[in-house]
């Protein structure tokens, strides 16, 4: 096991940033720390890196107790949200920094830097200054710089958070492919569930200083441990007192099972290929359903139409916490 | 054969830059700038040079090789250089403390730093005289010695480096230092290779201001130094006495000399700064 965090607590004054965190991150995998902002995921990452000292608990990296090691000695690669580029150094010098600190022979540094720039597709940009690069390029440079020291673990703090949507998506794909090539144990922090579901082998959901659930993207989406995980990983609505995903709600003109509930369409919202439907049931529930455009058209759905809503067979539902009260 | 060369040339980024970006409004702006600059700076400077050169090269050299004048100029350059060096170190330290540390009385210190700026120089001279003069409460009798020149210059030039470095230091991102640390750099290595190069332009600018001010300082040191020839007489005092003795050529010669040295030092500082930034 590559990283073992046990019994970690961290407070800032009265604010509990991390509470009794126990976590094992397997070697060679891409793990996402997912959660809302202020939930403690970045603090956890910084504790692993040694940029933050936990009040209690220990951090073991590759079998070695790193709790009292300063960040310089942990051999971790860290990538920051805002790139943290060394502005006065060229791209190649940025990448070479960690190796120069380690006093590696000049030829070796040169070779390694060339390899890494190739890997992150910045070979032509070695002599440029970071200010002459785009955001996505700067973050790739930061990644190459972190990989240069051959870290035992690579830690990324909201690495794509400062980039626009299109570049984000590209870099996300690229990070996945890069990881399949390099295989370094990687942990990245994100608040974007889509990013986590798409890229990670394993997701750790962090909320209010604690871990809500650990699992593969499928496990988390299909069998969320609680209503927080369920609602954080995707849209949810309530139907018959249970939480259910809107795309698991079937809309029909007549009842199809004993679970069917009658209601009136109160809103039709078209977003690209999908149609989002709000149905006011006769029991007084507001149900959201998602349909494809063609399906909605076939049903001739418009505001005021009477429909039946039913949970799809095999849909995952969960008792809604508010209705239990 | 000639056809291939321009093709290579056209790839250079330089050729894509237009020769001038002036529009009507920016043209007027430039005109006003040049006029103002000429009236206030260029023309008076040229006048000084012309006055200095009326007697020809040998008269100019004679003025400067006068033993008393040479001693005054040397003292001025030496004290301005020493004080600038001190400011570079101490000023950076003060800026660092003001930006990075939190302590009781920091707000007060922020204000006090500017006092040498704000104080009329003759008042500064009086303050120094009462502290280090014949009736010094500290028992430091530095009046009428060359030490008083260094002291007065250090007093009036203190804020320059501090105030230039401070905003740049505030702008430095903490994550850059953390990135350096995660790559294995110790605190001192991070300071030397990451922080200092970022501060170099500001330090150089502060040093240039400090040096230029030191070269021309008059008010703050004239009371305490006593203006003793060969001991505590500086160039600006020497210029005044030349004027009083109806020797405008002599005054202009000294002024021209100060001008040249100041320019030289500013150029050298700029070179050092560029070098530091590049080397990292």
From TrEMBL, chain A:
GO CC term (a single one): ATP-binding cassette (ABC) transporter complex
Keywords linked to the UniProt accession: ATP-binding, Cell membrane, Membrane, Nucleotide-binding, Sulfate transport, Translocase, Transport
EC main group: translocase
InterPro entries per UniProt: AAA+_ATPase, ABC_SmlMolc_Importer, ABC_transporter-like_ATP-bd, ABC_transporter-like_CS, Mo/tungstate-bd_C_term_dom, P-loop_NTPase, Sulph_transpt1, TOBE-like
Keyword ATP-binding: yes
Domain ABC transporter per the UniProt entry, residue ranges: 3-233
Gene Ontology MF terms: ABC-type quaternary ammonium compound transporting activity; ABC-type sulfate transporter activity; ATP binding; ATP hydrolysis activity
EC number: 7.6.2.9
Keyword field contains Transport: yes
SMART domains membership: AAA
Name this protein carries in UniProt: ABC-type quaternary amine transporter
Protein's organism: Nocardioides albus
From TrEMBL, chain B:
Entries under InterPro entries matching the protein: CysT_permease, MetI-like, MetI-like_sf, Sulph_transpt2
Coiled coil: none
A GO MF label: ABC-type sulfate transporter activity
ABC transmembrane type-1 domain residues: 73-269
Gene Ontology cellular component list: plasma membrane
Cellular compartment(s): Membrane
TM helices/strands, residue ranges: 21-50, 70-99, 111-134, 140-162, 194-212, 250-272
Membrane topology reported for the UniProt record: Multi-pass membrane protein
CDD domains, sorted: TM_PBP2
Gene3D superfamilies listed in its UniProt record: MetI-like (1.10.3720.10)
Keywords attached to this entry: Membrane, Sulfate transport, Transmembrane, Transmembrane helix, Transport
Listed Pfam families: BPD_transp_1
Domain of life: Bacteria
PANTHER family reported in the protein's UniProt record: SULFATE TRANSPORT SYSTEM PERMEASE PROTEIN, SULFATE TRANSPORT SYSTEM PERMEASE PROTEIN CYST
Family the UniProt entry places it in: Belongs to the binding-protein-dependent transport system permease family. CysTW subfamily.
Record's function text: Part of the ABC transporter complex CysAWTP (TC 3.A.1.6.1) involved in sulfate/thiosulfate import. Probably responsible for the translocation of the substrate across the membrane. Part of the ABC transporter complex (TC 3.A.1.6.1) involved in sulfate/thiosulfate import.
Subunit-structure text: The complex is composed of two ATP-binding proteins (CysA), two transmembrane proteins (CysT and CysW) and a solute-binding protein (CysP).
NCBIfam families recorded: 3a0106s02, permease_CysT
Name this protein carries in UniProt: Sulfate transport system permease protein CysT
Organism the protein comes from: Nocardioides albus
Organism phylogeny: Bacteria, Bacillati, Actinomycetota, Actinomycetes, Propionibacteriales
């Amino acid at each position: 096991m590559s990283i073992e965090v046990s019994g970690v607590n961290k407070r800032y004054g009265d604010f509990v940033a991390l509470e009794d965190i126990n976590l094992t991150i397997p070697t060679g995998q891409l793990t996402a720390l997912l959660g809302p902002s202020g939930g403690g995921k970045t603090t956890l990452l910084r504790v692993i890196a040694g940029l933050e000292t936990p009040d209690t608990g220990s951090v073991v990296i590759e079998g070695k107790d790193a709790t009292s090691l300063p960040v310089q000695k942990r051999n971790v690669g860290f990538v920051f949200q805002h790139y943290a580029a060394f502005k006065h150094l060229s791209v190649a010098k940025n990448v070479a920094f960690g190796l120069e600190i380690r006093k590696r022979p000049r030829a070796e540094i040169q070779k390694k830097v060339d390899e890494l720039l190739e890997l992150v597709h910045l070979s032509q940009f070695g002599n440029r200054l970071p200010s002459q690069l785009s955001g996505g390029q700067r973050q790739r440079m930061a990644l190459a710089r972190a990989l240069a020291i051959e870290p035992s673990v690579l830690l990324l703090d909201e690495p794509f958070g400062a980039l626009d949507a299109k570049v984000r998506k590209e870099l996300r794909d690229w990070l996945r492919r890069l990881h399949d090539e390099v295989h370094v144990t990687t942990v990245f922090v994100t608040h974007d569930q889509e990013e986590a579901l798409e890229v990670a082998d394993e997701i750790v959901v962090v909320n209010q200083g604690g871990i809500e659930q650990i699992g593969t993207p499928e496990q988390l989406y299909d069998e969320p441990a609680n209503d927080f995980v369920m609602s954080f990983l995707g849209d949810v609505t309530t139907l018959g007192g249970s939480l259910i995903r809107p795309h698991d709600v079937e809309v029909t003109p007549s009842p199809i099972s004993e679970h069917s509930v009658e209601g009136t369409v109160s809103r039709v919202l078209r977003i690209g290929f999908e149609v989002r439907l709000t149905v006011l049931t006769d029991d007084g529930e507001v149900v959201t359903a998602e349909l494809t455009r063609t399906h909605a058209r076939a049903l001739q759905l418009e505001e005021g139409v009477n429909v039946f809503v039913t949970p799809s067979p095999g849909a995952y539902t969960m008792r809604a916490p508010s209705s239990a009260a | 054969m000639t056809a291939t060369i321009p093709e290579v040339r056209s790839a250079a980024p330089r050729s894509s830059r237009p020769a001038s970006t002036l529009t009507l409004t920016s043209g007027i702006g430039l005109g006003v700038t040049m006029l103002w600059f000429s009236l206030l700076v260029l023309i008076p400077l040229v006048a000084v040079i012309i006055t200095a050169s009326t007697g020809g090269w040998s008269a100019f050299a004679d003025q400067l090789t006068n033993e008393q004048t040479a001693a005054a100029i040397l003292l001025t350059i030496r004290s301005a250089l020493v004080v600038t060096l001190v400011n570079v170190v101490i000023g950076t330290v003060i800026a660092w403390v003001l930006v990075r540390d939190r302590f009781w009385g920091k707000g007060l210190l922020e204000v006090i730093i500017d006092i040498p700026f704000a104080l009329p120089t003759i008042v500064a001279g009086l303050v120094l005289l009462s502290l280090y003069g014949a009736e010094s409460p500290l028992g430091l009798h530095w009046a009428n010695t060359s030490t008083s020149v260094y002291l007065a210059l250090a007093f009036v030039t203190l804020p320059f480096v501090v105030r230039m470095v401070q905003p740049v230091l505030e702008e430095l991102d903490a994550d850059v230092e953390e990135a350096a640390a995660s790559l294995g750099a110790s605190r001192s290595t991070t300071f030397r290779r990451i922080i200092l190069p970022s501060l170099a332009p500001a330090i150089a600018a502060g040093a240039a201001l400090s040096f230029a001010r030191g070269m021309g300082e008059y008010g703050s040191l004239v009371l305490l130094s006593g203006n003793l020839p060969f001991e505590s007489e500086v160039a600006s005092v020497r210029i005044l006495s030349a004027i009083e003795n109806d020797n405008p050529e002599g005054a202009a010669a000294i002024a021209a000399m100060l001008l040249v040295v100041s320019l030289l030092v500013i150029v050298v500082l700029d070179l050092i700064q560029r070098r530091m930034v590049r080397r990292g």
